[in-house]
Specification:
By secondary structure, this protein is of the alpha+beta class. The chain contains 9 helices and 14 strands. The chain has one domain (9-155, 183-294). The chain is 28% helix and 30% strand.
């Protein structure tokens, strides 16, 4: 296995959407998420992590150590049970007996989960799916964390009426030739999200340099295999990675994030493409012991 990372990182991702809904809100009729006080668009961290998980699952497929814990149609306690059975535990009595023989069995169970599932190693997980707490696999705090993405400018969500010629039932077909529907889109918006990679927490999950490389690859390509009509055209436009010379870091994260500025070129017109913005990174004012790499 590759060496565990030794450096702290922060990173900034810019991505945009054109004529699509980047993250619908089920509590608002699936309208694009929005900050009601400011009008800025929001995309949740859960949404972005889903894209990263999907990419890893696509490119790594059945590669050992790169399975995905949180995925469709796979109950979490099925994976939890696998970790217990790997350590010869099938019920609570066997777990109690194992703990008497080996007080560190909990760590072994948790280690199995980290070594087999990329998203647990990366984002962490709460693996307490069984009713009896004694049979759970514990909790893991992951080294990689994302905040909510927020649009650079306020967004305007448009409701578009659509029609289709496919009629659902025979009865309806006798009375009408088309059906009406609607969808919500954002004509264009550029979003910014900030993330963190802790080398200190990486020691606990054994998040490696190979995992880190795969993370960057996944962030860059997280929309490339996830296109749909509902989400429109979504693309990652910028990935700026700040690397510290030490495990615990050389500067506060906010100082690094402040070096990245995004400005509209023409304030008199609404933005409709990425070229309407100017993105700059002030490399000259980076704190000592920190380097920045623009991966896109």
């Amino acid at each position: 296995m590759a060496e565990t990372i030794k450096n702290r990182y922060e990173f900034v991702v810019l991505f945009d959407v054109e004529n699509g809904n980047p993250n619908g809100d089920p509590d608002a009729g699936n309208m694009p998420r929005i900050d009601p006080e400011t009008g800025y668009g929001i995309v949740t961290d859960v949404c972005l992590k889903r894209k990263i998980r999907n990419y890893v699952e696509t490119v790594c497929d059945v590669k050992t150590g790169y399975r995905i814990y949180i995925k469709e149609n796979v109950p979490l306690n099925r994976s939890d049970k696998e970790a217990l059975e790997y350590n010869g535990i099938k019920n609570e009595d066997q777990l109690k007996e194992a703990k008497k023989k080996d007080p560190g069995i909990d760590k072994e169970i948790c280690k199995f989960m980290c070594s087999n599932f990329f998203d647990i190693r990366t984002f962490g997980a709460v693996m307490t799916t069984f009713v009896k707490a004694a049979l759970n696999c514990g909790q893991v705090r992951g080294p990689v964390q994302l905040g909510f993405a927020r649009s650079i400018d306020p967004i305007v969500a448009q409701e578009v009426t659509i029609t289709r010629v496919a009629i659902a039932t025979e009865a309806d077909a006798e009375n009408k030739k088309t059906e009406m529907g609607r969808k919500f889109i954002v004509p264009y918006a550029l979003y910014r999200v900030e993330g963190y990679v802790s080398a200190n927490l990486a020691k606990r999950t054994e998040f490696s340099e190979d995992d880190l490389s795969l993370l960057w690859e996944s962030v860059i390509n997280m929309f490339e295999h996830d296109h749909s009509a509902a989400r429109g055209k979504m693309s990652v436009r910028e990935l700026a990675v700040f690397k510290h010379d030490s495990e615990l870091g050389n500067a506060p994260a906010y100082k690094l994030f402040d070096t990245i500025t995004i400005n509209r070129k023409d304030e008199s017109m609404p933005a409709r493409c990425y070229k309407d913005y100017e993105v700059s990174v002030d490399m000259t004012n980076l704190p000592s012991g920190v380097t920045c790499t623009r991966m896109i």
